[in-house]
Amino acid sequence: MSFSDLLSLQQPGLRSGDFKHTPSLPSTHLFETLKSIDEFSSSLTLRDVEMQAPLSEELTVVVLDTNILLDYLDVIQAFVAEIEEQGLPVLIIIPGVVIYELDGQKNRERLSWFARRASSWLLKKVKERRSVKGQALNETCKASGNWKKRDIDAEFGSERSNDSLIIDCCKYFLRQRRTFLCSKDKLLTVEAESESVLTISPGRDTFASCDIARALFGSEASRFSFSRYRYAYRNSLENLIQSTAKPEQDDDQMDVDDDASSVPQYPSHSLDLLHEQVIDYFTGLLLELVARVAGPDVRSFGCGNSASKHAPSYSSKNFATWGAADCLDYLGMKKRLPRTNPRVETFMTRPYRGVGARRGQDWSRRDWEMALKGLREIGDEWQEGSIRESVPAAELHMSRVFAMPMRPTGL
User: Fold this and answer.
1) How many other C-beta atoms lie within 10 A of the C-beta of residue 320?
2) pLDDT digits (tens, 9 = 90+) for 394-409
3) If DSSP codes are grouped into helix, strand and coil, which group holds residue 148?
């Protein structure tokens, strides 16, 4: 069933002019992930968002465009983690049409990897029902009361594109709360501002969580802790050519330790950055696989029920803290894992945090290929479509990075 079929089932009276999603070729895991986000979105309202120690009396809403999720997911992830840690009253809204646009990226070679990462993270956060929420069907300014349906009396051209649906989403939340649109699309931000919606645009390569905080809170932002820019693997060619430019430093930067020795040295080499993403993303998929295989037994991990010193190390850990190696150790107790060199669990361990673990740039191209081949075989063995479908997207970017001019070493 495609998203179009789903829409038809939900809206038997679909008319010409209603929102229609034309799906690309099948991708079962991504489809199911996005469908789940769509379904969860309809059940979460502003009242469901839990806030602690609010910055002001009113909640601030930030509506995200698709290009931000594809290009700056790492920034959004950092910002959301920081507002949740500090109990700040901010709600991230994902317009319904953006969820469908992510589905449209799955067969665009360079964007598939980023769409899959964004979709996986969004589903996790929407399920948490805290600070990230999808647009519900009735959260619209349309007279129809359904953002997917075209108003009968709408003027010609007024619903000409997905952009108009994003603006409609912004206008709906603007009626209730101070609302920002975060987008790279200059025309869209101009249109939003004409509707009195405030906007945030990545105006420089060093866009970071602290930039969003400044836009939302102004000088108040200095009272809180928001991270500065750090390198991230993105789709742009400029990011792949290893520039040596450093982030701009601002005198009014917020809550950052000035002692250089205490500041973590983040990687800047594209292979290291891609390796980080591969570890994070596939660890999440492996955790989902273990949860499916173990069923209710997942709750017993880390409860101290096993007194044997010979019990596997993962059994003494809370499941939420498991890494890829823990997942693979567990799965290996159930079925024989593929033999690769390097071992998948070693490649999937963060640099220097385990025997043989290293940076992405320290693995040869053959090492990358063998590790990803091992992941694909695990997906095949366990019939786990999420892993099988995602490996080719990661392989494409691995090949792309190895073909680009790079510094021989990085941080």
Assistant:
1) 9
2) 999 999 999 887 665 5
3) coil
- Torsion over CA of 75, 77, 80 and 84, rounded to 10 degrees? -130
The length of the chain, given as a count of residues: 411
3-state helix/strand/coil string of the chain: CCHHHHHHHHCCCCCCCCCCCCCCCCCHHHHHHHHHHHHHHCCCCHHHCCCCCCCCCCCEEEEECHHHHHHCHHHHHHHHHHHHHHCCCEEEEECHHHHHHHHHCCCCHHHHHHHHHHHHHHHHHHHHCCCEEECCCCCCCCCCCCCCCCCCCCCCCCCCCHHHHHHHHHHHHHCCCEEEEECCCHHHHHHHHHCCCEEECCCCCCCCHHHHHHHHHHHHHHHCCCCCCCCCCCCCHHHHCCCCCCCCCCCCCCCCCCCHHHCCCCCCCHHHHHHHHHHHHHHHHHHHHHHHHHHHHHHHCCCCCCCCCCCCHHHHCCHHHCCHHHHHHHHHHHCCCCCCCCCHHHHCCCCCCCCCCCCHHHCCHHHHHHHHHHHHHHHHHCCCHHHHHHHHHHHHHHHHHHCCCCCCCCC
What DSSP string runs through 200-222? E---STT--HHHHHHHHHGGGGG
Q: Which residues pair with 133 in a beta bridge?
A: 93
**Nearest 10 degrees: Cα torsion 23, 24, 27, 32:** -20
Q: What is the DSSP letter of 223?
A: G
For the stretch 227-281, pLDDT in tens is 999 889 988 755 554 443 444 444 444 454 334 333 345 677 899 999 999 999 9
91/177 Cα distance (integer angstroms): 10
And the tokens for 164?
């108009």
Residue 353 tokens, joined:
């945090």
Per the DSSP assignment, residues forming a β-bridge with 182 are: 64, 200
Question: Do residues 202 and 180 lie in contact, with contact meaning Cβ atoms separated by under 8 Å?
Answer: no
Residue 134 corresponds to which amino acid?
G
DSSP conformational letter for 123: H
pLDDT in tens, 284-332: 999 999 999 999 988 888 776 555 667 788 888 899 899 999 999 999 9
C-beta separation of 3 from 100 below 8 A: yes
Within 8 A by CB and 6+ apart from 348, the residues are: 278, 279, 282, 283, 323, 324, 325, 328, 371
